[in-house]
Amino acid sequence: MSFIHIWRCFNGVIKREFLRFLHQKGRFFGALVRPLVWLFIFAAGFRSILGVSIIPPYETYILYEEYITPGLLGMILLFNGMQSSLSMVYDRELGSMRILLTTPLPRWILLCCRLFASVVIALFQCAVFLIIAYLWNIQPPAIGYLSVLPAIFLGGIMLGALGLLLSSFIKQLENFAGIMNFVIFPMYFASSALYPLWKIEDVSPWLFKLCNWNPFTYVVELIRFSLYGQFSAKALIIVTVCAVIFMFLAIMGYDPKRNGNTRMEQV
To answer: What separation in angstroms does the CA of 19 have from each of 14, 16, 25, 123, 164?
Structure first.
């Protein structure tokens, strides 16, 4: 195996995912509809109820719409990661992924190529959302539009790796919906995406602890600080460690020698 073989694999997987994305226009609009509904309707309705005090990285009082914008970016990454998981299960059912996994290339390279392709698509979706949010008068500092890109990319890597890990355990499409709902909604609502953690601590100490153990919380906080040109070392370390752990477990999950995934190997 040489670098040219890895590049051909990477290039092929990237092209395949982009062609699929271009042919599935509903996937693009569906990824934007969810956060836009929360931004235009939910945030407007709760603006007068859920006040937000001055907390880092904000230096003054902000509107609720501005507070939940990083959480909505995290929502795009979360749903994209789960969509990638669904695609893996679908491809495995059809047989195309089984054929791909029988190539001489190491599986970790194949999975990393697939993960990178899904994150690039998520970056494009997040960029479009930020443009729409800007028109909605949510305007962070100009430097934030550059500093937030690495944060979105790293958050997408972590959540995409989680999706790959889940796809290694889901054997049939029929089981996908229940497992995804069990993952998506607890991760999103038990985080700082919709409300500051200090508000949660005042109401429910046990829920506050759960939010602190939720890795999605740190994806949101990493994006939040980066969007305002600041740096959160704690969020960066936790997101990076979780991304490595999820990807390692996903690679192990796709190893038939470890989990008896013989069905995947049939061509």
So the answer is: 9, 5, 11, 16, 20
pTM, 2 dp: 0.85
Cα–Cα–Cα angle for 228, 211, 187, rounded to 5 degrees: 90
Instruction: Concatenate the DSSP letters of all residues of 17-77 into one string.
Output: HHHHHHH-HHHHHHHHHHHHHIIIIIHHHHTTTS---S-TT-SS---HHHHHHHHHHHHHH
Q: Which residue, 101, 115, 86, 114, is CA-closest to 256?
A: 101
Instruction: Give Cα 83 to chain centroid, integer Å.
Output: 10
Residue 12's alpha-carbon distances to 7, 117, 211, 229, in angstroms, are 8, 10, 39, 35
pLDDT tens, 82-102?
887 777 777 666 656 666 666
pLDDT tens for each residue of 159-213: 999 988 888 877 666 666 677 778 888 899 999 888 888 888 888 889 999 999 9
Q: For the beta carbon of residue 63, count every other beta carbon within 10 angstroms.
A: 15
- Label residue 204 left, alpha or beta by phi (over 0 means left) and psi (-120 to 50 means alpha): beta
CB atoms within 10 A of CB 139: 13
Q: Is the peptide bond before 70 cis (omega within 30 degrees of 0)?
A: no
Helix (H) or strand (E) holding 109: helix 107-135
